[in-house]
Amino acid sequence: MKRRTVLRTLLLGGIPGAAPALVRAAPAAPAAPADSSAADPGAGLLAQTYPDLQGKPQPLAQWKSKPLVVNFWATWCPPCVKEMPELDELHKRHPQVGFLGLAVDTAPNVVKFVSKVPVSYTLLVAGPGVIDVMRKLGNAPGGLPFTLVLAADGRIRKQILGPVDIADLDRMLSAGVA
After folding, report:
1. CA 24 from chain center: how many Å?
2. Which residue, of 1, 45, 51, 90, has the fewest CB within 10 Å?
């Protein structure tokens, strides 16, 4: 056989075991360092810190020990405002689950809003810059409301763009978020 034919036969697997041996002989490229926020968007979210309504920075990692519902909302978003009392009821019904509202708004607007529509779960002021974070979490258009359900380890279990189906979320939380 000609040299070219022999090489082609070896590379295309004409001799059993020959091609895999050639592949195994090649040195492995070093692995690139993993970016945990790219590989696990939930972990990226929990690495963030946002101020509360008094301006005190609150690291989201403090909610990592149990399942968490994170609702991105704004005072100027009618569907957001409409679902907040229902989310508050779910918060009261499911004490084993953390609830967190991240406002795509300003602190003065949120303080004024909660004086009229109080909620029992924590609200933080994320501001308009959080839209980029929302996009990394699967909300490509950056729309509101946007809700995530995270497992206790921070993995995203459900993404909801638009108003939450409260009955569906209630069933999911009742069944447990693994």
Report:
1. 38
2. 1
Phi then psi dihedrals of residue 123, to 5 deg: -115, 130
Q: Where are the beta strands (DSSP E) in the chain?
A: 49-51, 57-59, 68-73, 98-103, 122-125, 146-150, 156-161
Angle, alpha carbons 37-42-46 (nearest 5°): 85
Kindly report whether the peptide bond that precedes residue 145 is cis, defined as omega within 30 degrees of 0: yes
Which residue has better confidence, 136 or 4?
A: 136
- One-letter amino acid of 116: K
The string of pLDDT tens digits covering residues 116-146 is 999 999 999 999 999 999 999 999 999 999 9
pTM of the model: 0.78
Sign of the torsion angle spanned by Cα atoms 62, 65, 69, 70: positive
What number of other Cβ atoms are within 10 A of residue 177's Cβ? 20
How much of the chain exceeds pLDDT 90, in percent?
72
Residue 73 has φ and ψ, to the nearest 5°, of -150, 175
Rounded Cα distance between 156 and 62, Å, is 16
87 in Cβ contact with 99 (< 8 Å): yes
**Which amino acid is present at 108?**
P
Neighbours of 13 (CB within 10 A): 12
